[in-house]
Amino acid sequence: MSAADTPQGPGWWQASDGKWYAPDQVSATPAAQPMPMPSPGSGPVGNAGAQAGFFSRLFDVSMKTFITPSIIKVLFIIGLIVISLGSLILFIAGTQADGGIVLVLLAPLYWFVGVLYLRVVLEVIIVLFRIEENTRNKR
Predict the structure, then answer these.
(1) Which residues pair with 4 in a beta bridge?
(2) Domain identity same for 49 and 9
(3) 13-38 per-position pLDDT tens digit
(4) Residues 13, 20: contact at Cβ < 8 Å?
(5) Is 21 helix (H, G, I), strand (E, B) or coil?
(6) Are residues 108 and 62 in the same domain?
(7) By C-alpha distance, which of 65, 90, 83, 89 is closest to 119?
(8) Count of CB atoms within 10 A of residue 83's CB?
(9) How far apart are CA 124 and CA 51, in angstroms?
(10) How much is the pTM?
(11) Based on the domain organization, do 59 and 30 belong to the same domain?
(12) What is the mean pLDDT of the chain?
């Protein structure tokens, strides 16, 4: 039985040993049994978790589906609002205080660094979820 590292044509299937086999090469050995390939967007991080519904995923005590990837955009928007309000408060406080020019100058810097930090933290979170998804799909 010959195997390849990549599919050689239509109908080729990937066994649990990670090798690709021709359509006519199905045997009774467990390592050579066809393994279903995950579709893009499937799994607990992808669309399969989204089908369960927000509140069923929120109260899923088994933690089989994750809610964070579906709300990460909302978290980013909330973070942007909070950082922008903090920057605006710094700017207004700087205009109201004597010698507050430092606060006026720091407000845009605070906003930029805050948005940059927020974005990096949220991207790290998403990367961790993608690592988990890829690890789960490899088993």
Answers:
(1) 20
(2) no
(3) 777 777 777 777 765 444 545 544 44
(4) yes
(5) strand
(6) yes
(7) 83
(8) 19
(9) 25
(10) 0.58
(11) no
(12) 79
- The reply to whether 53 and 120 lie within a common domain is yes
R_g of the chain, CA atoms, integer Å: 25
Produce one character per residue of 21-31: b if its CB has 16 or more CB atoms within 10 Å, e if not: bbeeeeeeeee
Alpha-carbon span 74 to 67, nearest angstrom: 12
- Domain hosting 97: range is 39-138
Number of domains within the chain = 2
- Long-range contact pairs involving 61-69 (C-beta distance under 8 Å, separation at least 24): 66/129, 68/125, 68/129, 69/45, 69/126, 69/129
Do residues 56 and 23 share a domain? Answer: no
Are 9 and 57 found together in one domain?
A: no
Q: Are residues 67 and 125 in the same domain?
A: yes
State how far the Cα of 73 lies from the Cα of 83, in Å rounded to an integer. Answer: 15
With tokens 């010698």, the residue in question is: 99
Within this chain, do residues 22 and 70 fall inside the same structural domain, yes or no?
no
Quickly tell me which residue has 């205080």 as its tokens.
Answer: 97
Answer for the pair 64, 44: CB distance below 8 angstroms, yes or no.
yes
Distance, first Cα to last Cα, the chain: 23
- How far apart are alpha carbons 43 and 24 in whole angstroms? 29
